[in-house]
């Protein structure tokens, strides 16, 4: 087993197949509070869950990172068919996650008059991308959609985002400067009322109207009096490549897991950025959003598992 030196405030461990487990120390939410694994269980769980990180069955969409199993995706309700799905996952689905990254990065490709406008532009822009386009997706009662404004209002200090991300990628001076810019830009947009028009119900309605075959319902228990709406995730898996077989993972491990697909974030940053600087910025904006959303939703100490190679220099990953 590899020995690695822990970063300040984080307990880290490495599994036999090289999956790193990092403790998320910015959590202010309640997901995982009652289902937290002991840290001695992390490496085995990381190994178990990595079995469900597989090549995607459909490269032209991304679902939400939400760990609750699918009850349906569009017309598909058959449990066996749902278990076969291996999909990319980004917070809120591909349209919302990409909009948040483009908006925070102040990317030239999308300049909406408010967040809702920027989202609708992004959702149709994705459809026009080469290779058949990227089809927007989402689900009923999505936390990522509900917390769009809150992630800007309660944005974590950039130095803390950098420290957290430093555990999974190389964060140096240039990256820290970008995280500062993302923070300042989101705060400026917030003050200008940019996020005020957005609400999760209209987002759902938009998806049901425009992408009915790609709108999902997730399994939520009848009794939600614990305030968790069926969120019993025990960790977040960030996969360098491929997607996540969410229902198969739940059936196989008996546990729910958030999963995030680096491969698609990287591809979208490369495709939508109009300069080297913008591509790096959009890519970091995807991760900045993940950390901020995690801060709102995850309990402190939530484990993040990743097979990302931290030696990557972001400056050399992009053209
Ligand atoms: Zn969601």
Structure description:
- With 319 residues, this protein is α/β, with parallel strands linked by helices.
- The chain has one domain (12-314).
- The protein has helices spanning 39-50, 79-84, 94-104, 115-127, 143-146, 148-153, 158-165, 173-191, 200-210, 246-253, 262-272, 276-297, 314-317, and strands at 12-14, 20-24, 53-54, 62-63, 70-73, 88-89, 138-139, 215-218, 233-239, 243-244, 256-261, 302-306.
- The strands form four sheets. The chain has a five-stranded mixed beta sheet with strand order 1-2-12-9-11. A three-stranded mixed beta sheet has the order 5-8-7.
- Strand 1 (12-14) and strand 2 form a beta hairpin.
- Helix 7 packs across helix 8 and helix 11 packs antiparallel against helix 12.
- The longest helix is centred in the last third of the chain and has 22 residues, at 276-297.
- The chain is globular and about 45 Å long.
- Residues 1-9 have low confidence and may be disordered.
- Zinc ion binds at residues 64, 66, 92, 139, 142-144.
Number of strands: 12
Percent of residues in beta strands: 5-15%
How many structurally independent domains? 1
Strand order of the largest sheet: 1-2-12-9-11
The DSSP helix count reads 13
Q: Which regions are unreliable across 5 or more consecutive residues at pLDDT < 50?
A: 1-9
Report mean pLDDT, rounded to a whole number: 93
